[in-house]
Amino acid sequence: MTEAKLEALLKESRSFPPSAAFAANANAQPSIYAEAAADPQAWWRTQADRLTWEHAPTTTLEWDLPFAKWFSDGTINASVNCLDRHVAAGKGDKVAYYWVSDIEGESRTITYRELLAMVAKAANAFTELGVKRGDRVAVYLPMIPETVVTMLAIARIGAIHSVVFAGFSADALSSRILDSDCQYVVTADAAMRRGTPSPLKPAVDEALQSCPNVKTVVVVKRTGADINWVEGRDHWWDDVMAPQSDQHTPEFFPAEQTLLIMYTSGTTAKPKGIFHTTGGYLTHCAATYHYIFDHKVDTDIMWTAADIGWITGHSYIVYGPLVAGATQVMYEGLPDSGGRDRWWKIIEEFKVTKLYTAPTTIRTLMKWGDDLPASHDLSSLVLLGTVGEPINPEAWMWYRKNVGRDNCPIVDTWWQTETGGIMVTPLPGITATKPGAAMTPFPGISVDVVDNEGHSVGNGEGGYLVVTAPWPGMTRGIYGDPERFKATYWERFPGMYFAGDGAKRDPDGDIWLLGRIDDVMNISGHRLSTTEVEHALVGHPMVAEAAVVGASDETTGQAIVAFVTLKLSAEQATQDQAPLIEELRQHVAKTISPIAKPRQIILTPDLPKTRSGKIMRRLLRDVAEHRTLGDVTTLTDPTVVNMIAGLLETNGSED
Ligand code: PRX
Q1: How far is 369 from 343, CA to CA, in rounded Å?
Q2: Residue 493 in this model has a pLDDT that exceeds 90
Q3: pTM higher than the cut 0.90
Q4: Tell me, what's the pLDDT at 518?
Q5: d(Cα 319, Cα 605) in Å, to the nearest integer?
């Protein structure tokens, strides 16, 4: 094994084919792979026919590496594709969203006709406030219907939305507003979190002290919280919408019109303003939504349990499902707003058929116990999905058994803000899925796993995940910084898109993601993935969650330090944990290899995570190496890090 390759050590032999009934009715049938492979660009062109174009494109791809144009002579309007065409087709009374409040018992049902009327009013209002084609509008809103309305209204008039996750700080907001020179902000007084208002407007007020170009702020009243008001600048949403007509004649724009900017959630360096254009992005969202979520327009109730402030929300709460005319649940609250069985109640009440969420949430739900999902009727579910990080086999199996009743295909979907839509995934009616594997590229997508020199690795070997051909949903760049775009993604392996993730091909050639490359550890010359060690730890019955980092070590170069959260009863929590720590180290040695045995295991009640739920390994590395801590502004709970640093002195097990 050369240094360049990642060791691929964790073995998994379980595999779950779809039921015969699911396979027979699936939107994607096995021939799809060969059809797409025969001529990927032509295949994508047929997928573009899922959209309504004013002028249908006659061009497909223009490729000037790394800058792509797709369908560039087509003209289109994103909002028309999400709304007008469904209403025109007689589907106006179909429910677009069942919006479910943080507060139990509160919900709103919004049809396609109603959503169109709200978007038309908002498009008229934004136009009156001065928003023009190409202008950037920052959107700092919680999970409420007005967020979708705002995005679609901005898109409708050819402006560009830059949605900033409502959990971000004033500093994070102002740097994003400044980076893409947004002149308008849409926000709310507060978000509702577990029944209590969590202020948003104060962060906008603070952010705007350093953003002199923002002259207009529109404020949705969500909670009625007391807020500061800047006369002339601030406008209540209801006041600007009330006088507007609910009719709006849309303009059509070239396919390469920029639709959105989304700053990557990065745990390091300055955030990158990833931008997407209209025709290619919508085509990618529409095709992946149709085939991967096996969309059935008359029966589906889709629930993407993610925040609209992330790309998952953009592609699979807004654009993909709305283009398809889907009915969805959109949930405002936290998994335990109103109780730890809130999710199961929502699935039961709205008869959700497809659930798409992140492994970190699945592990939280798992920690809360099997009896909660068991006490609700989840029989409406037919398909489950995951996204955002590698899912450990135990969580995958738990999801399958306790949520899917051993009866729902699971799609583990790998993609990124930069890719726009899903790239590597099972197809639910075709693939025999393996717990923890993203499996195969989506039809029309070419990916590879390569070594340091950019050569494909063999089956059973690990390396770097790359995309080897352009695709419609690919980012068109980093806003205002084409050089950084080239340097970040296209120079590591010339001619290929470098995703920054480690991956392995198993003996069957199927793809498993191994986490970010900067999370790779080098132990005595063995390059090990933090993910596999974490999965081994979480495979122990006492472990709820684990984060693993490589800390520098005089003898081995790096050594493995594991931060572990246990599932403990009150009585167990008071016992001496030293024997358990030793047992966990042996468990990893046995499950993976003695070289993967953690030098040190630190027990902690919680792990530091970014607001999108990713574990901040960089901080844990700092803690493990006793360095001064890095930037913690994106941490959900900054105190966790200091607490962990304290524990390192007291409860670590070091040889
Ligand atoms: O490391 C991969 C991980 O999330 C990164 C992309 O993060 P972001 O741009 O915030 O988008 C998240 C939602 C698409 C990837 O580089 N990731 C995403 N999905 C998976 C994953 N890692 C393993 N398995 C996945 N299914």
Answers
A1: 13
A2: yes
A3: no
A4: 76
A5: 38
Identify the bridge partners of residue 512 per DSSP, sorted by sequence position: 504
Among the listed residues 122, 139, 83, 153, the one whose alpha carbon sits nearest the alpha carbon of residue 243: 122
Residue 551 forms part of a structural domain: yes
Q: Is the CB of 416 under 6 A from ligand 1?
A: yes
Instruction: Pick the residue whose CA is nearest to atom 21 on ligand 1.
Output: 389
Is 600 contained in some domain? Answer: yes
- Nearest partner of 227 among 261, 248, 195, 197, judged by Cα: 197
**Which neighbouring-strand residues pair with 84?**
none
Three-state DSSP at 567 gives coil
Residue 625 lies in a domain: yes
Distance of CA 151 to the CA centre of its chain: 18
Which CATH number belongs to the domain containing residue 571 in this structure? 3.30.300.30
Domain of 604, in residue numbers: 540-650
**Phi then psi for 332, rounded to 5 degrees?**
-80, -30
* Domain count for the chain: 1
Name which residue sits closest to atom 26 of ligand 1, judged by CA. Answer: 414
Looking at ligand 1, which atom is closest to the CA of residue 265?
Answer: 10
Instruction: Give dist(CA 208, CA 188) in Å, integer.
Output: 15
How many A from CA of 499 to the centre of ligand 1? 10
**61 in Cβ contact with 470 (< 8 Å):** yes
515: confidence class by pLDDT, cuts 50, 70, 90:
confident
pLDDT for 593 beyond 90: no
Q: What angle, 0 to 180 degrees and rounded to 10, lies between the N-to-C axes of helices 31-38 and 40-47?
A: 110
Coil, strand or helix at 130: coil
| Confidence band of 587 (pLDDT split at 50, 70, 90) | very high
User: What does the buried/exposed string (b/e) look like for 506-537 if buried means 16 or more CB atoms within 10 Å of the residue's CB?
Assistant: beeebbbbbbbbebbbebeebbbbbbbbbbbb
What is the three-class DSSP state of 643?
Answer: helix
Which residue's alpha carbon is nearest to atom 23 within ligand 1?
A: 390
> What pLDDT is attached to residue 629?
66
Identify the band that residue 575 occupies on the pLDDT scale cut at 50, 70 and 90.
confident
Does any domain span residue 60?
no
Compute the mean pLDDT over every residue in the chain, rounded to the nearest whole number: 92
Atom of ligand 1 nearest to the CA of 390: 23
